[in-house]
Amino acid sequence: MLLLGAILALSLPPHTRIAAEQAHVPMRASADGRVAATVTLTDASGASRIVLWDRALHATLLSPPSALQPGELLAELALGGFGGPSTLYATREASMELEAGGNRQTPVAYLGGSPVALALAPCARVTQPDFRPYVDDVTENGIYITYESPDSQEVLDGDTTSDLAPYAVLFNQGSCTLLGRASIRGASDGYVVGFRGYLGQFIAPTDLDVERQRYVAVRMHGGNLAELGPGVAMAVAPDGTAVGADAPPGVRPFTPHAMLWHPDGTTVALAPHARSSVAYAIDEDDTVIGTLVGSDGKSYAFIWANGRLHLLDDVVPATGWHFEAAFAFGPREEILGTGVHRGVQSAFEIAE
How far apart are CA 309 and CA 322, in angstroms? Predict the structure, then answer.
C-alpha cells in the first residue's frame, strides 16, 4: 500500500482561495523550499494575487507592482515560478477599458520581495509587435514565456495565415529563443509542453472562440515540436513523458480527463472513472499528481504511481484533512496542493 509522510499546513491569507481545476499550474516551489501559489480573492473583484510562504511557513500576499495606469480597470498577478532562492517570476495582467485596445500583460520579477519589470526587448525580434508575454514556467534553463496575440486583433473564418498564433519562447541571460508556435504550460530538462488551438486547419489565438477551437497537446524539444493528441499538456518529466488532460482545464464548456503521453506515442487515461480530472505534475519516476471529481461531485487530490491511482485522502495519515488538488512537486519530492483542514481551506505540503 502506498503511504505518504508528514503533512504541513500552509495557511491561506484571509479572503483567498485556490480552485482545484486551473488553466495554469498554480503552485511552485523553490530549490530551498519556499512555496508560492496564485490565489483568487473572494471579494467582488475575483482578482488573482500571489501568496508566498517562506521556510518558516509565514505567508505574504503579493500585490501587482504599480498603481492602475490610464485605461486599466483591474490589475492581477499570476505565478510563473522561482528563478532562485530570492527571485520569483510572475505576470501582471491588466483588464482594460474597451476603447483602450485590449488587455496588458507585463512579466515581472520579485527580487527579495521588490518587483522589477523584465527587460524583454530581445524577444521582439522573434515574435510580433503588440503580442502579450505571459510567464509560464521557470527552470535552470531560463524563463519560459508564451506571447499571446493582442486582444484587439480579429481572426476571420477565412484566415489561412496562422500569423496570430501564440509564440513559445525561452528567455535566458538577455537572449530570446523561439521554440515554436504554441502556448507553454510546463518545462523540464529541455523539454517544454503546452498546447495549440486550431480553427479549421490553422493555428489561432487560443482564447478566440473556445467552443469552436480544437485543442492539441504539444511537446517541444531540441528544436522539434510534436503534437501529442487532443488536449493540453501541463507538465513534463525529464525523459519527455508529458501529463495533462484531453481538454483544456478551467475553460468552459470543456470536461477534461487526465492523460499521460509517453515518448513512444502511447497514452494512458489516468482516472478513467472520474467525472473529470487533470494531471498537473510528474516527477522523474513518472509519479503523477493532480485532481479529479468523484461520483459524489467533490474534488479529490490524486497520485498515480506504478500504474495505479490513489486518492491522497486514502494514503496520507492526516486527521481532519480532505485533499482536493495536488499541483506540484517540491525540491525533495514534497507534494504541494490545496484542501480543507478542519473545515477551512488551506494549502499543504506533504513529505514523500
Answer: 17
